Amino acid sequence: METDVTTICRLAIAAILTTTVYLAPSAWAASFEPLFTEQRSYGYPLARVSNDGKVVVSHPGYGYRSTIWRENTGLSNIGFGTGLNGLSGDGSTIVGSTYGIAGSGRAIVWQGPDGLRNSSRSTAMDVSIDGGRVVGGSWSAGGAVQAIVWKEGLKHDLGGITVGAVTSEAYAVSDDGSTIVGTSSDILWESGSPRAQNPFVWDEEAGFRVLEDASGRSMPFGFARGVSAFGDYVVGQRNTGIDTQGFLWTRENGEVLLDDLPGSRKFGAAFAVSAYGNRIVGRGREVSGGNVSVAVIWDSQLTPKPLKGVLEDDYGLDLEGWTLRTATDISADGRFIVGTGRGPDGLEYVWRAEIDAIPEPTALLISLTLVIAIIASRGNGRLLSV
Question: What is the pTM of this model?
C-alpha cells in the first residue's frame, strides 16, 4: 500500500510541474520582489517557498520572530521562541520548533484550520507535499539527537552511524516522501566536536546510508541540506575547517563537489535543488574576496553564477543597490527562488525571484492522467498530530 501511495504522490507532483510549465500564461515575465524586512543572525534567515510561489516562510534565527507570507493575505508574524523550518510543496503545511535548552524544545506542525500540533523533546525541519511525513530530530534520555520521521502521526527513528554514541538529524524530505536527508555523527554534541559528521540519505529500499566524502578526507564534516521532489538529487555542503564547498549527490554518480564562483575563496553551500536537478541554489563568496556571501545558482552543467548577475543579465531585471546574500530554496519546477539580502536602503530582506520554469517534455504525455491522480490522492495520509 505504501508503494502505491508513494507512486501516486510522485505522479501527482509531476502533474503539478507539467501544468506549471506548459499551462503558464504567454505573458509571463521574470520578477524580483522584496517580501519583508528581516532581522538577521548567524546562519540565518532560512526562507522556504511553496511550489507555486504563493507561500513563503522565514526563520530569522533564535530570539527573533518567524514570518509567514502569503500572496493573497500578506504577512503573519509568529511569536518569539518559535522557528519555522519547513513548508510543504503545496503550501498547506508548515513545520518548525519551539526554542529551549537541549531536550526541552517541541516540534510543531501547522496545518490549515487544524492549527498547531506539537511533540515534546523534538524538532521538525521539513514536510512532504501532502503533509503525511514530517522529519526532524528527537532527543533521547541520554542527550543524543536521533533523526526521525513522523509518518501518519507515528514517530519512527531513522537510525544512524553505529560507532559509539550517535547524533543525527533529518533536515529535508522529498515532496513524494520517499527520501529523507540530513547529517549524522559518531559522538554526542554535548561531549565535544564530532570525530566525523557526514550527510546521510534514507529511503524505504536502502534504509540509512552515509554519503562518502568526494574529497577523500579522513575526518569529513558535512550536511545534506536539500533533496529534489522525487528524491533523485541531494545537495548540501562539505566543511574542511577553513573552506566550505557545496555538493550534489545522485544514486548513479555518488557525490560531486560543486565549484565556487571563479576567483573566490571556497565558501560554497547548496541548500535546494529543482525536481530534475537542472537548478541548484545556495551561497558562495564574492569574487573580490572578503567575508560577504552572495546568492549562487548552479545550472544543469553545474556552472556557478551569482544569482544577481543572472537576474540582471539573463532576465533584464534592475537590482541596482541590492546584495543578494544567499538563496535558500527553489520550487520544484525551478521557477521560484527565495533568499535573503540587503536592499538599497540598507535593510535586510527576504526576497522572491521568479524566472522561467524548467520544462520536462516527457511529463506532458501523461499530464491529464496525473492531474486526476493528484485529486485522488489529496487528503490521504495528512498529519493531524505529531
Answer: 0.84
